[in-house]
Amino acid sequence: MDTFRRLPKPLRSTAPHGNLRKRKHSAVVDDRSPSTAPKASDALPLPLHLTNAVFFTLFFSVAYYLLHRWRDKIRNSIPLHIVTLSEIAAIVSLIASFIYLLGFFGIDFVQSFIARASHDVWELNDTNPNYLINEDHRLVTCPPANISTKTNIVSAPPKLPASEPIITPLASEEDEMIVNSIVNGTIPSYSLESKLGDCKRAAAIRREALQRMTGRSLEGLPLEGFDYGSILGQCCEMPVGYVQIPVGIAGPLLLDGREYSIPMATTEGCLVASTNRGCKAIYLSGGATSVLLKDGMTRAPVVRFGTTTRAAELKFFLEDPHNFDALAVVFNRSSRFARLQGIQCSIAGKNLYIRFSCSTGDAMGMNMVSKGVQNVLEFLESDFADMDVIGISGNFCSDKKPAAVNWIEGRGKSVVCEAIIKEEVVKKVLKTDVALLVELNMLKNLAGSAVAGALGGFNAHAGNIVSAIFIATGQDPAQNVESSHCITMMEAVNDGKDLHISVTLPSIEVGTVGGGTQLASQSACLNLLGVMGACKESPGSYSRLLATIVAGSVLAGELSLMSAIAAGQLVKSHMKYNRSSKDVSKAAS
Ligand code: ADP
Fold it and tell me: Which ranges does the record mark as transmembrane (predicted)?
């Protein structure tokens, strides 16, 4: 059967949601969507805009004709009830066109009010099968079962070009109704998981609604192959799919006498290859060694007093060693793994910033430290009743922002890592020489960064390696900001023949439990490193080991990139690994 309705036109991304609602009779109606209410226009053998034009013209012309006849009859004193055949035809046409126009425009208008008034369409749909959502995303009553379904049957939608948005067939009519309810705003998208109790189905429905609302296709963003239940309430809200990031392996990294294969999730060509080369240079030189200097996650609330004197009194109280044990008992109640290490205060007028530092076992520890801080603030209320807690975080912590406090005091794990790279390895593997590397490091990583006013950025590309490992192992990628703080040092040793290289990273914030670490892919990468989950024998040793592996990998990355720059190879290797020889225009089509 022919169709007189068009497929929905893809909306421009800038089109507001409202535009979608304004569209009339333009959605797909096929045998998969019997929920669509039949309209008089469905039966007419003309395209919709022509049918509308015909009825409009008919309505106004017969109305004009009848008014004329009415005036003539009054002038000529002819009784109004005496009608000619042409007048009868005109009256019938007027009524018919009026009914058509009312059915087409008026009822939809009324229905829009009904839909808005129905606060929970979901329940209506569940309990009353006669309520359905029409193609204009409005609530309508479904035709009784005995009405012929013929009016709903139209041919399959024509194939859209690949770049056009796609209306994906959903698993059931019920899903179709839910999608429509989300599109028209009667069901909040965020409630899908709790209402359906099926995370995968919720994601599929949300995704389809999003495509319809934006007019943009999500083809290419996979939906299948992911456990949506595993992220619920922990990692991501309102999922519609997942982004695929390739994971490459660099290594083996020989660190503290053990070999590690380093998983790196990245889309930057050259990065894994370069880190791999650094690992090789370290390996051939006998390996790298690391030392964990500090392990303490921090949280710093801001509290306010009426006077600076009172703020200072609390500072002295908190920093007094005699009070530490009592405060630690209160703080440590937050978790069996949280152990208060120290409290550092800073005053700004009447405001006090209190930086609590604690060990957090194998967790990165933000939740844990925040709970401990909350306990202490409640405890302080008895002696400092005039203390006004402005915020649990006052930015003296400092989380996910470049800050000197992390660079100087450390946050999370502070690690230093070193290696001595032999002269022949520098020449054969790194294709440069020691003196050039030492000079470049001084002028670029030290003096150059000083010229740039760097804060913790005294390195070539620590952020590259840190981010790639963070993403692969389920760390919080935003903490790359302070975790990438690093100073790279290089020095000629052994009579100037060999290269001593070190990296010092004071704020590596990693965990092997909690957050994204428990997801399947990320767990697999942690497992590869031998640090998956919680360490039963010695809580905290997995996360500390992970921090040293991050530092060791940064060492490899620094070594390789600095060598490439010293040897003038950087642009050449990027052109080789970072610029595909594929015809981009063909790939795009
Ligand atoms: P974070 O504090 O990094 O946000 P979470 O609080 O989400 O981490 O996760 C840590 C949870 O894991 C806590 O409930 C803690 O009791 C539990 N846990 C189990 N084993 C360990 C361990 N070895 N180290 C730290 N936490 C652990």
Answer: 48-67, 88-107
